[in-house]
Amino acid sequence: MKGRDEMQRDHRTKDIELVKRVVSDNSSQAIKELMMLYTPMVKKLANLYYIRNFNQADWLQEAFIVCHETCFRFHSSQGSQFGSFFKLRLKNHYLSLVRHELAIKRKADREACSFDHVTYYDQYVKHAGTRQSSITIDSTIDLIGFCETLSYLEFKVFLMLLGEINVEEVCQKTHATKDQIFYAKNRCRQKLLEYIN
């Protein structure tokens, strides 16, 4: 019966052999065998994280890609073990995926507004479209098209610039500070210049 050290040496030898086959022949069979060896580790890591609409097959697919890349970055001569290196790279990859998902969620949360605000925005744009579909500022622009390029805060600031509402109303409706309104005003002007050109 093999001892623990001998089993680890055999496992390491098999890893190195499979990695060499992946690198030299781009062997799909070798990568499948590597993934079979490390599937328990992959599943265990995947269970630590959550991404909306990601299922087990998605996590495994990501692991398959990382495993393939790891084969080409792994150097057995440095004394490291493939399994440890793969686990570290996979963990970092999963964390990057989660961070990316959280960044998208934070962006959506930042840009979220109440249904009342959306309704008001839609009514104003429709009203502006029926009242006058363009305004003249050195050239004719499509007011509705321009308004659609603005965030909710920028839209309110644009209404303020047009004299439709005042600063206090913008603060009240958007919960923005005067500094945020100042920066939004600059963004509006910049967007308007870009839109005209």
List low-pLDDT spans: 114-119, 126-140
**How does the helix and strand content classify structurally?**
mainly alpha
The ordered H/E elements are HHHHHEEHHHH
- Strand line-up of the largest beta sheet: 1-2
Beta content: under 5%
Alpha carbon gap, first and last residue: 79 Å
Number of helical runs?
9
How would you sum up the global shape?
Answer: elongated
Radius of gyration: 28 Å
The averaged pLDDT comes out at 77
Largest sheet: 2 strands, antiparallel
Instruction: State the share of residues found in helices, binned by percent.
Output: over 70%
The strand count comes to 2
What this model shows, in words?
This protein is mostly helical and 197 residues long. It is built from nine helices and two strands. The chain has helices spanning 4-25, 28-46, 56-73, 82-111, 115-131, 143-147, 152-161, 167-174, 178-196; strands at residues 134-136, 140-142. The protein has a two-stranded antiparallel sheet with strand order 1-2. A hairpin with a 3-residue loop joins strand 1 and strand 2 (140-142). Helix 1 (4-25) crosses helix 2 (28-46), helix 2 crosses helix 4 (82-111) and helix 7 crosses helix 9. It is elongated.
